[in-house]
């Protein structure tokens, strides 16, 4: 196996998306799922996966928030094996699908394999372009810090120059995040974090606080920003600029770098806070009839942004690339990359 010579490493929950487009609310009602939400599967959701496979001819897509962003960054960078990803999968057919998909996208993977637990899946219900995610982590939930002690893992994270971890991983192995975070701090390498979903903020606050100390770049969308502002500062949806500034000013381990906070807001302007200043970047609107599926839009934005960051680009260049990649992804079904990247900037 050749040594890793890329620049960006992601670590997270690899999931195989089982994606279905639905025309009514039957499945949402049956399984108590809200439109445009992201949740972890409970006992009541378990039959949903079989129902989708048996009755709805689903599309299978390599997923998981961090892996999506890494795949998009790799696609934007165009140079094979620029990005690597680690997470835990089962030793099964779905795991093989994930490996093949990542390899086809040019991403180097070093999966931990759990012999006794199936590969994680995520039910994706798409209705009128909006999506709901129900994640059954399974093997993804079993990633262990010990995997980072393998020779290949050390080679990857020591060679990488930038790191990205989505907040969903905070439910799995904060210890592993801290290993990568400490390496990033000790070597003055940028560490990027995403808050990922309101439930992470609401129910895993201590883990978020630990991870935040390492974050040189912090991403989230408006609902996550609102949840954070409400929980910590008693601020609401109208105060997101203030929330961004407050998060940017939180203590951090690497004091050589200011924290940059990026809030995406769908078709509304993206907010960026750094060094006490908030900048707004307008989003070029997409005609409604061109919108296929918002699943993966936030992940794609991060992937585009990171593709510029790792090349020494400015925050503005990163946001522009992120807007472009998100716009591309929402015109596809799921976080899929059917054509070569044509972005030039």
Notable traits:
5-stranded mixed sheet; 16 strands; alpha/beta; 345 residues; globular; 22% strand
The quaternary organization reads as single chain
Instruction: Describe the main β-sheet briefly.
Output: 9 strands, mixed
Spatial strand sequence of the major β-sheet: 7-5-1-11-12-13-14-15-16
Average pLDDT works out at 95
Compose a concise summary of this entry:
The chain is an alpha/beta fold and 345 residues long. Helices cover 36% and strands 22% of the residues.
What report would you give on this structure?
The chain is of the alpha/beta class and about 350 residues long. It is about 35% helix and about 20% strand. It contains twelve helices and 16 strands. The protein has helices spanning about 25-30, 45-55, 65-75, 95-105, 150-160, 175-185, 200-205, 205-210, 220-235, 240-250, 295-310, 315-330; strands at about 10, 15-20, 40, 60-65, 85, 90, 110, 110-115, 120-125, 130-135, 160-165, 190-195, 215-220, 260-265, 270-275, 275-280. The strands form three sheets. A nine-stranded mixed β-sheet has the order 7-5-1-11-12-13-14-15-16, with helices on both faces. The longest helix is centred in the last third of the chain and has 15 residues, at about 315-330. The radius of gyration is 19 Å and the shape is globular. The two termini are about 35 Å apart.
């Amino acid at each position: 196996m050749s040594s890793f010579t890329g620049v960006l490493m992601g670590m997270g929950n690899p999931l195989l998306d089982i994606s279905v487009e639905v025309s009514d609310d039957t499945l949402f009602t049956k399984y108590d799922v809200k439109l445009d939400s992201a949740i972890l599967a409970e006992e009541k959701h378990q039959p949903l996966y079989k129902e989708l496979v048996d009755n709805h001819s689903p599309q299978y897509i390599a997923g998981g928030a961090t892996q999506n962003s890494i795949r998009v960054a790799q696609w934007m960078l165009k140079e094979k094996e620029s990005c690597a990803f680690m997470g835990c999968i089962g030793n099964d057919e779905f795991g093989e699908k994930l490996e093949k998909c990542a390899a086809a996208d040019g991403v180097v993977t070093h999966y931990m394999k759990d012999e006794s637990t199936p590969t994680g899946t995520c039910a994706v219900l798409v209705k009128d372009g909006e999506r709901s995610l129900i994640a059954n982590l399974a093997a993804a939930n079993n990633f262990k810090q010990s995997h980072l002690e393998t020779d290949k893992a050390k080679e990857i994270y020591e060679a990488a120059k930038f790191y990205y971890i989505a907040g969903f991983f905070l439910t799995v192995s904060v210890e592993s995040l801290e290993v990568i975070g400490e390496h990033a701090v000790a070597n003055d390498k940028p560490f990027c974090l995403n808050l990922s979903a309101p439930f992470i903020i609401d129910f895993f606050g201590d883990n978020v606080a630990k991870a935040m100390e390492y974050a040189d770049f912090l991403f989230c969308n408006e609902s996550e920003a609102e949840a954070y502002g409400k929980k910590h500062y008693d601020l609401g949806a109208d105060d997101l600029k203030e929330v961004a500034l407050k998060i940017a000013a939180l203590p951090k381990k690497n004091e050589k770098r200011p924290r940059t906070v990026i809030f995406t807001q769908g078709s509304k302007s993206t907010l960026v806070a750094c060094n006490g200043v908030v900048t707004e970047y307008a989003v070029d609107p997409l005609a409604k009839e061109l919108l296929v599926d918002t699943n993966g839009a936030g992940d794609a934005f991060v992937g585009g942004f990171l593709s510029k960051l790792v090349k020494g680009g400015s925050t503005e260049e990163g946001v522009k690339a992120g807007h472009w990649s998100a716009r591309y992804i929402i015109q596809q079904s799921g976080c899929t990359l059917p054509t070569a990247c044509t972005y030039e900037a």
